[in-house]
Amino acid sequence: MIRINREQTEAELRKFVGSDVYVHSEATSYVFVRNFKVRLTEAFVAGDGPSYRVALRFDGHGWLRMEGLTHYETDEAGRLLLAGFDDRGRMDVALHLGRGPFPE
Amino acid sequence: MEQRVLVLLPHPDDEAFGLSATLAEHVRNGDPVTYACLTLGEMGRNMGVPPFANRVTLPEIRKAELEESCRAIGIRDLRMLGYHDKTIEFEDQDKLDADIDALLQELRPTTVYTFYPGYSVHPDHDATGAAVVRTIGRLPRNERPVVLCLAFANNLEQGIGQPDVVRDVSANLKQKLASIQAHRSQFQVAEWVSGDVPLEKAMQERFGTERFWTYRFD
């Protein structure tokens, strides 16, 4: 994964706007949700780094907002994988978007 | 001279520590005070100790707390703008600015209180302050109200220096305490009073001064 660049990462996120996306969202130790499907209407990356806030608006009535994201990559399946790592390299949060479901 | 006061802050309770006593002083002077609160603090973590709220009931509870705080201060014109907590920075800027501009046109304030953009820690604080100065900045120079900002970032000194408006608010600590206590889901006043220090003395030391930075548009 590479360090988030606000503009580039936001541009990657916005490629999913207007489509149905499957979302995996996770705060390690506390919660994850896998494969909820939404139609994305807006996507934002905010912050001055090294950790960023990401917000998604979907279906005309929903928000997903996460803090603490530091890294991202687009994988070979075209899925956008964002994650937040602490200074010891442990993952705190994850936010993944795909056009198809992630394996159950 | 009468001042017309407009307060623009994102969360119920943002008024309590930073400027409730200053607002009480405005009320005492007969200045009309309008408080526009952008959200209901729906995403707050504190639910009372022991918890008496939950994620579903918190907005209504915080709304009632906000109304009680305003009564304690003497504010009679409270507007709740209906934005959602933690989303101000992602909101449509044109919509946000239009809401603020409508208040400016209606109320013609001489003094506006908000957060100093970039120096107020929470993204909602910074985004609210940014929208306020952006909108006021579009007014002709001679129509702009004075903008007094709260700020509490770590990098204040090198960024915006010392506060240029420092008010001794001892005379209005009663209202300030009542404002803080109104937000009972958020603050446990009892925890600040250690053993033998009376509440009044503790209040005076911690909250007897309110500080503002005048926003410079040029």
Automatic annotation (TrEMBL), chain A:
InterPro entries: DUF1806, YojF_sf. This is DUF1806 family protein. It comes from Cohnella zeiphila. It comes from the Bacteria. SUPFAM superfamilies: Hypothetical protein YojF (SSF89442).
From TrEMBL, chain B:
It comes from the Bacteria. InterPro entries: BshB2 (IPR023841), GlcNAc_PI_deacetylase-related (IPR003737), LmbE-like_dom_sf (IPR024078). One of its GO terms (molecular function) is hydrolase activity, acting on carbon-nitrogen (but not peptide) bonds, in linear amides. PANTHER family: N-ACETYL-ALPHA-D-GLUCOSAMINYL L-MALATE DEACETYLASE 2-RELATED (PTHR12993:SF27), N-ACETYLGLUCOSAMINYL-PHOSPHATIDYLINOSITOL DE-N-ACETYLASE-RELATED (PTHR12993). This is Bacillithiol biosynthesis deacetylase BshB2. It comes from Cohnella zeiphila.
